[in-house]
Amino acid sequence: MKKKRHIPALTVAEEKIAFLIWDREEMKCMELVRILASQSRQYVERSFGKFRKIIILLCTVCLVGCASREPKKNEGIERNGKALSSKESFQTEHPEETPMAEKRTAKKEVSRDWSKYFRDLKGAAVLYDVSREQYSIYHKKLALKRRSPCSTFKIISSLIGLEEGVISNKHSLRKWSGEIFWKDDWNKDIDFEEAFSTSCVWYFRQVIDELGKRTMKRELERLEYGNCDISDWKGKMNTNNNNRALTGFWIESSLKISAKEQVEVLARIFEKKVAYKPETLRLLKKAMAVHDQEDLKVSFYGKTGLGMDRGVVVDAWYAGFAEGAKGNVYFCVYLGRCEKEEVSSVKAKEIALRIVSDYFGE
Question: Domain 107-361 has what CATH class?
Fold first, then answer.
């Protein structure tokens, strides 16, 4: 019967090197040390002295490499003993800036005075011209402030639902529960396109529940969607509604995104920076199409969003993109709580369409 191999203990210096490598996520080097150390005691006593110098030299080279290389996309770092992803660590330092991956290829920004479109409304606007690789921004501080996306998030839940087969082109009809909701358009069986156009919350609440937390989190991180926080899955933080068929993490809850990030995400989707099936994008674009537009030279696609806190409108959005002679232009208009004038997503939409139409006319 073979005797069990004895693994000799490492010296203090070797342990320090090994654990330092461990912290650097280079466990293979430590494993090499242990394999060599696991040889018979007699062989180790005779030869390990020679190997030790080689091992320490190799470990030193590895450490130099670890210290000099940049973190990979999904690689973690630590803060206060807690592991953070590269995206999370960047957002911890710069919560209202673009992700590090985009910062290396930052697009040109110009400040625009679009106050005439807003009048007394407190708001911000962001426009991204793909052909110029240029952002035009009004009220930058507010444009970088993260707020609840509200129903603009239906763009994302539709995208993921279509991609994952939870929403089917031929079989998108969902049965109404019989519960009477405040909006008459929701009190019936409803299909995907009508649910999108009427912003039917219960329809997309079901879609999101069927997708599940794991899929949703994965896709939001892939899109780099705001803070990617879906922790309040049921929307219990919402102070305006306690009907869980009409609440969720995207409605005045844990998920937050800025107007500039809304534009960046839309560009990632429709400029195909993040891969989705052509049929998914076709159906989503069809649902987002604006049919009551006045400017026939420009085709608009978008989604409104509205959020309330104890009956008062605190967030109003219109986010989307336009196709015209200048190519694709992505845009987002945000309106915040205002004492002087009534705030609504309809007004956000009107402002966005006017800004973009005038931009194409410049």
Answer: alpha beta
